[in-house]
Amino acid sequence: MPAWTASHGLCYIRDMTIKALHHVSVVVDDLAAAIAFFTALGMTVEGERPVEGPWVDRVNGLQGVRVDIVLMRTPDGHGRLELTRFRNPKLVEMEPAIAPPNTLGLRSVMFTVESLDNTVARLRANGAELVGEVVHYEDVYRLCYIRGPAGIIVALAEEL
Fold first, then answer.
1. pLDDT over 80 (residue 20)
2. Is the torsion defined by CA of 47, 50, 56, 60 positive or negative?
3. Is residue 95 in some structural domain?
4. The total number of structural domains that make up the chain
5. Cα 140 from chain centroid?
6. What is the per-residue pLDDT across 108-143, written as a single tens digit (0 to 9) for each?
């Protein structure tokens, strides 16, 4: 059987290595603002703790790592987002600081929402800005990209 079946859009792998997506991590400079943003989106704090020690240094390939970690959970309980604030070493600024959507790397995290208009209003009240416009994708979704804490782009989709 081929590795990729274009007619079905499926990928078949003999030896499965991935069991599940555990979380996506976002490095932020203002942990309180990030928590407020994702809480306004409808996520809840699942756990919060400082992390440091030799294993953290080794896994990050850095020395003297001290971070504060907050794990946020989606309402369905399946999706998680880890917010990480580095206390040490100091943050490395990205250039440009507010990168455009065509910047290499992780583009966005997408959430399905009940009401796009209400969600955008709540997030804007927490300092978020629309990247472009709210648009219709065929007769399936209303979509938009919104820029949240640390410049992350969050995609929002309301099913039609």
1. no
2. positive
3. no
4. 1
5. 23
6. 889 999 999 999 999 999 889 999 999 999 999 999
pLDDT digits (tens, 9 = 90+) for 44-66: 999 999 999 999 999 989 999 99
CB 29 within 8 A of CB 91: yes
Whichever domain contains 111, its CATH number is 3.10.180.10
Q: What is the pLDDT of residue 3?
A: 47
In Å, what is the CA distance from 150 to each residue of 18, 73, 92, 130? 29, 19, 12, 14
| Separation CA 83–CA 81 (nearest Å) | 6
> What is the rounded CA–CA span in Å between residue 29 and residue 37?
13
Whole domain around residue 133: which residue ranges?
Answer: 25-89+104-159
